[in-house]
């Protein structure tokens, strides 16, 4: 389990709950992020609550409209689409530089995992939930820029999470609000949607999509589908890292929270994610979730082995180069 919390500091009830439930890790949102000193205290308190100094702390810091850390205390980073618009070698350099600078921000706060990059390929007519969060609409270019983002994160000691596997780009509704259904053929999915994930299958973490892919499983969203996880994610794509569900509180999923958690784990997710900090919902999930399986533990350990010690950077020089590149895109 990876859980969120309600505000910028743990309440006594949250501290007691996390101590007893012992979640694997935590995720932060804008409601949790006031200023650097406060956030360092919060990440330390979360780890103290479970008694593990190495408990992962996740965040979605993509740049653009998905940014939990905002000015004036943290830089505003451009949307991934703005980086992709540079094209060629400049886009690749900017993708690495932006990720390396974000990793520097996160590491200073005790945040160890960033849920980037988005590898989804948007298509005409799709819902805008992906939109400018995407690194383009051509699979090879998305894979190239996605790898640059991952390498920038890893160079800063932060683990990336490729998302939303096996591809959210065709969804015509936002999975936060309803369950999307994608009816593209298996061959079409393999050639386009799956391709960036296949190219980055060596990455340490991936996040599932709450989407029905009717060519593989006409009934269950990928997060809850043994067929999608075994055949597409673990099979055709070849991903063998830590597989975390997207947020179980999203309206794409039905049933109780216990059923959602148990279903995701039974389908093959290693870890389930719940973001909104609702204590009742988290309690249901905790009651339905066990410890990491041996296979999940091996994947977690292998992922952690990828986390090198971040070398000090000349932040001013890197930021200046990044700014100069983005000025060209503007």
Give a written overview of the molecule.
The chain is an alpha/beta fold and 330 residues long. The protein contains twelve helices and twelve strands. The protein has helices at residues 12-21, 36-50, 80-84, 88-107, 139-155, 186-191, 195-199, 226-236, 257-267, 279-288, 294-305, 315-329; strands at 2-3, 25-28, 57-59, 61-63, 66-67, 113-114, 159-165, 181-182, 205-208, 212-213, 242-247, 271-274. Helix 2 links the parallel strand 2 (25-28) and strand 3. The chain starts with a strand and ends with a helix. The model has no long low-confidence stretch (mean pLDDT 97).
State the separation between the terminal residues, measured CA to CA: 41 Å
Count of distinct strands: 12
Taken as a percent bin, the fraction of beta residues is 5-15%
Low-confidence stretches: none
* Class computed from helices, strands and strand pairing: alpha/beta
Instruction: Supply Rg.
Output: 19 Å
What is the approximate shape?
globular
Order of helices and strands: EHEHEEEHHEHEEHHEEHEHEHHH
Number of helices in the DSSP assignment? 12
Q: Taking strands numbered 1, 2, ... along the chain, how are they ordered across the largest sheet?
A: 1-2-3-6-7-9-11-12
Please estimate the helix content.
Answer: 40-55%
Quote the average pLDDT. Answer: 97
Main beta sheet strand tally, sense and closure: 8 strands, parallel, barrel
């Amino acid at each position: 389990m990876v859980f969120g919390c309600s505000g910028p500091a743990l309440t006594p009830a949250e501290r007691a709950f996390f101590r007893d439930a012992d979640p694997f890790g935590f995720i932060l949102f804008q409601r949790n992020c006031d200023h650097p000193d406060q956030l360092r205290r919060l990440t330390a308190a979360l780890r103290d609550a479970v008694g593990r100094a190495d408990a992962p702390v996740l965040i979605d810091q993509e740049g653009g409209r998905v940014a939990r850390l905002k000015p004036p205390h943290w830089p505003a980073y451009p949307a991934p689409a703005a980086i992709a618009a540079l094209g060629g070698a400049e886009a690749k350099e900017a993708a690495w530089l932006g990720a390396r600078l974000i990793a520097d921000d996160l590491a200073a706060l005790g945040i160890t995992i960033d849920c980037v990059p988005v590898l989804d390929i948007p298509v005409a007519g799709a819902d805008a939930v992906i939109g400018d969060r995407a690194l383009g609409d051509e699979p090879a270019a998305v894979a190239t820029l996605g790898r640059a983002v991952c390498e920038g994160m890893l160079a800063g000691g932060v683990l990336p999470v490729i998302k939303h596997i096996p591809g959210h780009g065709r969804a015509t509704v936002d999975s936060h609000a309803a369950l999307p259904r994608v009816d593209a053929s298996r061959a079409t999915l393999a050639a386009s949607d799956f391709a960036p994930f296949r190219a980055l299958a060596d990455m340490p973490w991936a996040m599932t999509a709450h989407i029905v892919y009717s060519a593989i499983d006409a009934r269950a969203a990928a997060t809850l589908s043994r067929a999608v996880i075994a055949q597409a994610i673990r099979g055709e794509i070849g991903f063998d890292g830590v597989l975390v569900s997207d947020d179980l509180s999203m309206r794409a999923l039905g049933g109780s929270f216990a059923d959602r958690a148990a279903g995701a784990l039974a389908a093959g997710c290693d870890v389930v994610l719940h973001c909104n900090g609702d204590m009742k919902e988290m309690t249901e999930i905790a009651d339905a979730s066990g410890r990491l399986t041996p296979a999940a533990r091996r994947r977690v350990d292998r992922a952690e082995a990828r986390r090198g010690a971040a070398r000090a950077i000349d932040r001013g020089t890197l930021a200046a180069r990044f700014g100069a590149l983005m000025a060209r895109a503007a």
